[in-house]
Specification:
Layout lengths: L50 E5 L6 E5 L7 E2 L7 E6 L5 E6 L7 E6 L6 E5 L1 E5 L5 E6 L2 E6 L6 E5 L3 E6 L5 E7 L8 E7 L6 E5 L1 E6 L5 E8 L4 E8 L5 E5 L7 E2 L5 E10 L2 E10 L6 E2 L7 E6 L2
Antiparallel strand pairs: 1-2, 1-24, 2-3, 4-5, 5-6, 6-7, 8-9, 9-10, 10-11, 12-13, 13-14, 14-15, 16-17, 17-18, 18-19, 20-21, 21-22, 22-23
Length: about 300
């Protein structure tokens, strides 16, 4: 059982990539506006900020960077509306994310790693890059789609309501997508796999959703849930093998792998006096004690690790 940690209301100074203030900081990530994470040390001065995440510590969900130990938190977006589900491009130079900042609902955006050069690619959420970085899979209007990384040539690959996570096979052309079973919403989740051209759809994992391939493509981490069988945990399973639970679940966003495949980033949430709070933890992929990376009165969620 998680113990509720002590909180701090400290808010990092901002480097904003959506306005003129970003121009002074655009050449080097962290050239201005940096701070240690709440309750954390400065960490290794040479360690890059390789984790991007969403937090509402500034009033609504914006995107932040931090080091793998949770230190040196840096805000990189600041607009009206919410920015969420960020994903690093394969080369680590860009970030795709979903946002409701614009007119007309939630859309996919791409920006440079320091928050500059924000470009809208059109409606959608849950972006997932192909290994080449040339394409992005996403969810919109009850369907899974693929488009180019510039937002052109949108094509449907699967029709599925209630999608809650998408990931692209490392070095391959298959796409995993998790969803709440439309016949058992609130009771069961599933994950299917489909080729990027829309062929070959099949069931990949029952009672598991919000999937993420390991960097080497040999394992998948999922949130397992079944109201019927009282199943609720985060589990890793080798392709063709048996699932290994690594953490009891209060999972509220898709789990993500570390670059070396040894750890999994998870979001844990709890209620205190009726107030919800979410924090980010790193859990050994083979199981073990989770390490808390964020510690804030606000909600921290949707982490992704640069590979």
């Amino acid at each position: 059982m998680l113990q509720r940690p002590s909180r701090t209301s400290a808010t990092p100074r901002r480097v904003v990539g959506d306005g003129l203030r970003a121009l002074a900081c655009a050449t080097v990530i962290g050239a201005c506006g940096e701070t240690t994470g709440p309750g954390e040390s400065d960490g290794d001065a040479d360690e890059p900020r390789s984790i991007v995440f969403a937090s509402d510590r500034d009033g609504d969900l914006d995107l932040y960077l931090m080091r793998p130990d949770g230190s040196q938190v840096l805000q990189i977006t600041d607009t009206p509306g919410s920015d969420f589900t960020p994903r690093w491009s394969p080369n680590g130079n860009r970030i795709a994310f979903a946002s409701d900042r614009g007119v007309g609902g939630t859309a996919i955006y791409v920006m440079n790693a320091n928050g500059t050069g924000v470009t809208s690619l059109g409606p959608g959420t849950y972006p997932a890059w192909s290994s080449s970085g040339a394409s992005i899979a996403f969810y919109d209007a009850g369907r899974v789609w693929v488009m180019t990384a510039t937002g052109t040539n949108r094509r449907e690959v699967a029709s599925t309501p209630n999608v809650n996570g998408i990931d692209w096979e490392p070095g391959g052309e298959r796409i995993l997508f998790g969803y709440a079973d439309p016949l058992f919403v609130g009771f069961e989740v599933e994950t299917d796999v489909v080729n990027a051209d829309g062929t070959g759809r099949e069931r990949f994992f029952r009672f598991g959703s919000r999937p993420a391939w390991s960097p080497d493509g040999t394992r998948v981490v999922v949130w397992r849930f079944s109201g019927m069988f009282q199943l609720d945990d985060i589990a890793v399973f080798p392709i063709g093998g048996d699932a290994v639970p690594i953490e009891t679940s209060t999972e509220n966003s898709p789990p993500r792998w570390s670059a070396d495949g040894t750890r999994v980033l998870v979001t844990k949430g709890w209620l205190t006096d009726g107030v919800a709070n979410e924090e980010i933890f790193a859990v050994p992929a083979s199981g073990g004690s989770p390490v808390q990376l964020t510690n804030h009165v606000a909600n921290d969620r949707d982490p992704d690790w640069r590979r």
